Amino acid sequence: MIRSLWTAATGLQAQQLNIDVISNNLANVNTSGFKYSRASFQDLLYANMRPAGSETAQTGAAVPAGIQLGHGVKPVAVTKEFTQGSAIPTSEDAFNVDLFISGQGFFQIERPDGTIAYTRDGHFTIDKDGNMVTADGLQLVGGRSVKQQNDIAVMIESSGIIKRVDSKNLQSQVSQIQLANFVNPAGLTAIGNNLFVESQASGTPITSNADENGMGSLKQHVVEQSNVNMVSEMVEMIATQRAYEIGTKSIQTADSMLSLVAQLKR
Fold first, then answer.
1. Phi then psi for 2, rounded to 5 degrees?
2. Which of 138, 145, 140 is nearest to 108 (CA)?
3. Would the pTM count as exceeding 0.85?
4. Where exactly are the structural domains of the chain?
5. Is 120 exposed, middle or buried (0-12, 13-18, 19+ CB in 10 A)?
6. Are 206 and 182 in contact (CB under 8 A)?
7. How remote is the C-alpha of 80 from its chain's centroid?
């Protein structure tokens, strides 16, 4: 009977983790470039009370099925799903440098310590030095000095080539945006602020110009929406809540049965 209490408790802990993951997904439904997470679970060890194929004492024949009692469930992973989000148009302003990756790849962002982080969030602005930066002021690799004082527009082609348009309406190429990709993007480590860093599980980054070598193409004046499906998340949340309730019922039932045993001598 004690086994059932602890088994049910593992189920409650698993469902609590699941609801935490779902809550984070729903909280970021409007976060540009956000990728939803999914929790994965495995069953725990089994008590092998009678192995399958063992011989019976009465006949010596092998039993076709044994007796195994499980000890519950455990979480094993919370993985990001890197399916593409919807494209959301933004302003058509001449200096709007919002970017959308249609296909695979990540923008490369230079962090203050010189290391590179990766993101699908293409909401960029131009800082006082003419560099393309994130909302936190971190510079996009390949987005240096894209604007000068007398320019009238900044154009970014699908291949990642950045061109300035000066006051005489003359275009000049100033930079080239390269994207990065990984053999296992799900192995990237999320560090917040819409950024990821590589890990041993993700592998080392593979870089290439946009629209080349399997990398996605770029589209200016567009950003990528979160890939969270609110309907699916709400259904998953309801199912998780019901599973949690069933787990509490299991504990209550086991407690009632133990209470009956405790009252046998009364």
1. -60, -35
2. 140
3. yes
4. 2-46+68-82+229-260, 87-224
5. buried
6. yes
7. 2
Q: Is 221 helix (H, G, I), strand (E, B) or coil?
A: coil
The whole-angstrom separation of Cα 245 and Cα 20 is 16
In whole numbers, what is the pLDDT of the chain averaged over residues? Answer: 92
Specify which residues 119 forms β-bridges with: 107
- Cβ neighbours of residue 211 closer than 8 Å, sequence gap 6 or more: 158, 159, 160, 217, 218
pLDDT computed for residue 103 by the predictor: 95
pLDDT (tens digit per residue) in 168-207: 889 999 999 999 999 999 999 999 999 999 999 999 999 9
Q: Which of 183, 181, 107 is nearest to 138 (CA)?
A: 107
At 209, list the tokens: 């110009």
Q: Are 116 and 129 in contact (CB under 8 A)?
A: no
DSSP string, 102-154: ESS-BEEEE-TTS-EEEES----EE-TTS-EE-TTSPEETT-SS---TT--EE
The residue type at 23: S
Is residue 71 a contact partner of residue 131, using CB atoms and an 8 Å limit?
Answer: no
Going by the DSSP 8-state scheme, the letter that residue 62 receives in this structure is B
Enter the tokens of residue 228.
């969270």
Q: DSSP 3-state assignment of 70?
A: strand
